[in-house]
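Appendix B. Chain record.
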Amino acid sequence: MSSPGPSRIVYVIDGDAAVREALARLLDAAGLEPRPCVSVEEFLAEVKADPMACVLLDVPGAWGGDAATRTSWQAIAGKLPVIALSSSDGPVVRRRAREMGARHFFRKPVDAAALLDSIDWVAHGDARDAPL
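Structure tokens predicted for this chain:
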């Protein structure tokens, strides 16, 4: 596994505080800069279209948006790579992840090495056409 790089910002959107904290510790230990957010709305209020950023998104838990939130999400999701996480799996969850712009999908609990590899992969633009 190659290092994702010390300046990479990773937004962690998950409604579960324990998950946000665990992912933030993992990302910090890997030399990344975690930015935990409780919801998509909080993320949208904080996000900067930084080319050195990506998003870990809890699907479907973090999504509760209205039409304006969905429009804002679509505008930013096209600029930042999204990696979906979910405690459940199946066609509906994976479809929702794709609709939200996810390039990769992981079922929780997530293997730390695989997640860090995925962040490294999307950081270098290699995952644009990877299937979910």
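Further analysis of this model is presented in Appendix C.
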